[in-house]
Design goal:
The protein has about 80 residues and is of the alpha+beta class. The chain has helices at about 10-15, 20-25, 50-65, 75-84, and strands at about 5-10, 30-35, 40-45. About 0% of the residues are buried.
Length: about 80
């Protein structure tokens, strides 16, 4: 995966230059928005999943599912997660 070069920009400046920032993001640039010196958000290009990534993820899910005994309902998993 490609590492993006991120430029820090203050929240007020980001607000006033949003259109310009979006054009830069389309070119592959990324920005970290700060407020009073604290990082609060990141603007990055949308990364579309390639078919190979989706296929790999699906295969991983199938492999995990194959290790589980019986049928597991999503509701059960949600409830189990709440108990953690």
């Amino acid at each position: 995966m490609e590492t993006l070069r991120e430029t820090e920009i203050g929240s007020f400046e980001a607000k006033t230059r949003l259109s310009e920032l979006l054009r830069e993001i389309e070119k592959g640039n990324a920005f970290v928005i700060t407020r009073r010196g604290k990082k609060i958000a990141r603007l990055v290009p949308v990364r579309e999943n390639t078919p190979n990534e989706i296929d790999s993820l699906s295969a991983s899910f199938r492999e995990i599912r194959g290790r589980l005994d019986g049928k597991i309902e999503i509701k059960e998993l949600v409830e189990a997660g709440r108990r953690w």
